[in-house]
Write a structure and sequence with these properties.
The protein is an all-alpha fold. It has a domain of 97 residues. The protein contains 21 helices and no strands. Helix 3 packs parallel to helix 5 and helix 11 packs antiparallel against helix 12. It is globular and about 65 Å long.
Length: 394
């Protein structure tokens, strides 16, 4: 059951993986608690946490990782397993984005690398270098990110693990884009895609195709190629768990491609069709993002403005003043937040058309607006965003 769960998670079905790991843990709990059974249970807890994290169930994932680490330390003699869990906790800290996430993740990843270096575990060291690359990438330290990724790729290639190397090549491409080197990024993406095709790995192949499509759609004369890549990515992601595959990203890219194609044509009928297609892709993106468990976690940072807007729409003067303050702060931000400020004004004026209000917003901001609209229709939908269900509490 545990190995079946790993197969599901590797194949992008983290929902099925979760159930397999829970079943495996339930069996372990029925057995005599020998060290071998405890060790197996610790392994299943790690794999369960992996599946939970992929679905955005971060709090549950953290508990499972910490329980697994406690089991490994209790038994002793599993430094390799401790290193794996330390690395996964580092990745989780990055995903959660809590205060002090960079420091926590750096400590976790370096602890994992030190353990694996003690053991001479080259495969695990390659993972550690990759994770450190991701951390520095998230911190916008491009040179450090590339240095760590290259070391990871070097070890993987020397070991002949080309599928793992391809995952790092994909990240090297991402860093090169962020560093303003699109030509180098395209080369890394194509190298990664070739590696994933040979490995027949749908999940990672869909991600690399998606990334290359996003890059090419911004380049003159390459929209048709970008659409083909994005449509191939979508076809693959539709066979996977939507949350783990982040299918909303591909829907959004296809919407952007349709917009660009509409701008490039002078034929009215074709233009109208492409605009309608873009709107539909954006609706699908919002639906998929809304259904992802991690979205609620992301929305908690916006709880004050969400609750204040709902309360202000119900006629509470103090809440109306709070919304005004939020709008003023947003107006000092980038164009995206300035647009949200204007949308909040439209909501307070009584507008409720979700499609119209979310038009032109990125997914994060669209989710914020949708959550406000849901709260207006049913205040109980906001209960998981705050420690109290009472809007007055903020």
């Amino acid at each position: 059951m545990g190995r079946l769960g790993r197969c599901f998670n590797a194949g992008g079905r983290s929902d099925l993986a979760e159930q397999c790991q829970r079943d495996a843990i339930a069996v372990c709990d029925k057995l005599e608690q020998s060290n071998s059974v405890k060790r197996e249970r610790g392994t299943e807890l790690t794999d369960l946490a992996d599946a939970l994290a992929e679905q955005g169930k971060y709090a549950e994932a953290r508990r499972a990782y910490e329980d697994s680490l406690a089991v490994k330390r209790e038994i002793g003699g599993d430094l390799r397993g401790e290193g794996v869990v330390q690395g996964q906790l580092g990745t989780l800290a990055m995903r959660e984005g809590r205060e002090g996430w960079f420091a926590e993740a750096l400590i976790r990843f370096r602890a994992a690398l030190e353990l694996d270096q003690q053991l001479g575990e080259l495969a695990e060291q390659a993972v550690d270098w990759h994770q450190l690359g991701m951390l520095f990438q998230e911190a916008r330290q491009w040179d450090e990110a590339e240095r760590h990724y290259r070391e990871s790729a070097r070890i993987k290639e020397e070991r002949g693990d080309m599928a793992a190397a391809a995952r790092t090549w994909n990240q090297l491409a991402n860093v090169n884009i962020l560093a303003g080197k699109p030509d180098a990024a395209e080369l890394w993406y194509r190298k990664a895609i070739e590696g994933f095709r040979k490995d027949e790995h749908s999940f990672h192949l869909s991600t690399a195709l998606n990334n290359l499509a996003a890059l090419l759609q911004t380049q003159a004369g390459r929209l048709a190629e970008a659409r083909q890549l994005a449509e191939e990515a979508l076809a693959l992601k539709q066979t996977l768990d939507p949350g783990a595959a982040e299918i909303w990203v591909t829907y959004n890219i296809l919407a952007q491609i349709a917009d660009r194609e509409a701008e490039a044509t002078t034929e009215d009928r074709l233009k109208a069709g492409l605009c309608a297609e873009a709107r539909e892709y954006r609706r699908l993106a919002r639906d998929a993002k809304r259904n992802f468990a991690g979205t609620r976690h992301e929305l908690r940072q916006f709880a004050p403005v969400i609750v204040a807007t709902v309360a202000a729409s119900a006629g509470q003067p103090e809440a109306r003043e709070a919304v005004t303050q939020h709008q003023q702060a947003m107006s000092q931000g980038g164009p995206g937040w300035q647009a949200v400020s204007q949308v909040l004004g439209r909501i307070l004026a009584g507008e409720r058309d979700e499609t119209a209000l979310c038009e032109g917003l990125d997914l994060q901001k669209a989710m914020l607006i949708e959550t406000i609209l849901q709260g207006l229709a049913d205040p109980a939908t906001l209960s998981d965003l705050l420690p109290t269900e009472s809007p007055e509490a903020t």
